[in-house]
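Complex record, two chains
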Amino acid sequence: MLKKIIIAVDAMGGDNSPEKVVKGVCLHSKNTQNAYYKIFGDLEKIEKMIPKSFSTSLYEIIHTKEEVKGTDSALSAAKRGKESSMWKAIDSVKNNESDIIISAGNTGALFVIAKLNFKMIENIDKPALSGLWPNKNGTNIVLDLGANIECNEKNLADFSLMGSALFKALFPDQSPKVALLNIGSEEIKGNEIIKNTYKKLSNQSNNIYEFKGYIEGNEMMSGNVNVIVTDGFTGNVALKTAEGTANFITGELKKAMTGSLMGKFLTALNINNLKKRLDPRLYNGAILLGLDSAVVKSHGSTDHIGFANSLELCVKIVSGNLIDKIKQSID
Amino acid sequence: MLKKIIIAVDAMGGDNSPEKVVKGVCLHSKNTQNAYYKIFGDLEKIEKMIPKSFSTSLYEIIHTKEEVKGTDSALSAAKRGKESSMWKAIDSVKNNESDIIISAGNTGALFVIAKLNFKMIENIDKPALSGLWPNKNGTNIVLDLGANIECNEKNLADFSLMGSALFKALFPDQSPKVALLNIGSEEIKGNEIIKNTYKKLSNQSNNIYEFKGYIEGNEMMSGNVNVIVTDGFTGNVALKTAEGTANFITGELKKAMTGSLMGKFLTALNINNLKKRLDPRLYNGAILLGLDSAVVKSHGSTDHIGFANSLELCVKIVSGNLIDKIKQSID
């Protein structure tokens, strides 16, 4: 029998919590054999929500008195102290009682509390926030999505290795292909940091990933590469612009469909296929890389299905030995 | 009778030129009363393409021996000298024989040759490339899209004024609302330059535009603002990411439609409305701002319809007194 993967779940963060978290845990447990959930949060509230059919051999609830609010600043959340569900969940990983932490709560607070408790992996200077992003052939890892506004050559090279390790942990049958996000005008192809990183990655041979050079924003979803590296400012703008564009087109599409009833109906049928492919819940879960334990951040506004997907991401990260892979690649 | 607006047209740049340029000019002339076209390029080729119905009172052809290639570096194009269609067209504006220049050719070359020939507007330090971008309520101006990788507070403040002047020239009935593109994580809300620009724009009252603060990538198309200011690196990545996302969704939509023939047919009907709204040809034409004449760059890959739309952009820029508006706003 497989060793159970123990997930420390902060149940009190994000919209409609703890309900969506509890429902997400129940949904995930139906589709997996080897997860055990330590659920941190308000015992009374959580107990009420757990269906009787959910075996107590699969979970435990650890009561916490405090919770980090979405409106807390990262520092005030950290100062609020060690009694919050978020802190306790992280503590559980730190004490080797859990394998990985997940929260749908306050992003800034989660990262500050994680950094206070976990060590950086040796030789990594900055942690990076990585996300999943659809492409024509499958899935991209994109990092950094906002943990570091400014990055130097060493940081971007580290992100290439960490992103590749994550890709390999999640998709063991595929090979990481790294590209640097850059701009297209020939006149002004990138700043000095990007050019130097290009040289660095071109010259250093490794057996972790294949370096494919620069990529422009319009090629990110082409499927020619699968690990896209950039600084946190650019990555965040790119991610949000893609989200905004997708929402805009979906909105306009709905407007366009109001022509005929039959058209509405059939278009809806056809678009269901599209929705399945592009459902943001499929790509839910950003991963903070660089600490000696991965930290998974579920989108605050996702529902229980999205939360269940990011629980599966936790399972894959642990069973794919992500942290060992990163450590080996950095050596 | 209205004074004719004289457009200097570089006929030799971009895919399928001069044919698409000539066709674009003919199409545009049918829908406008007050444009006159000075067409710079290969006389023999162009003459063959012009229909007999196109009155010679509406245009002239100025034969040029050289053309800038898409593969030329900006500097080698400039060194190629003053005999190219691009240089001659710019020269025509410099000598007050034309009101504005348009080209679908090599972007880098166009900007270098324009900078060599036109003066900067007083008190503007850097020119910016601005583009049109759909939003829920109409159209955004976004700048800089790639002319300057790094920008300081003064540059971004100048872009706010120039972008607002352009907005007002194109949409005289609407009011410019400026926002700075930034990232969303509270922890790390922007770099020092953006924060300082925010302060600068908040403190300086003006009657040119309303300053609406920061905007994130996902809100760019919400329609709450209409002039979006950023540095050229971020702007270029955002623009290209939006393009890539739109293409990806369109591609996936086509795949999703292959379900049923009837579905295909009806979806196609419905999507025509959408296409009309999102047709990139509607937004064709980037404008280099900051020189004492606007320079309009048509997308190299657009067709004659897209080119005709950017000719109309030229008419609006001249009749909207863009350059005067910029000069007044900078004073």
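Note: Residues 23 and 132 of chain A are 23 Å apart (CA to CA).
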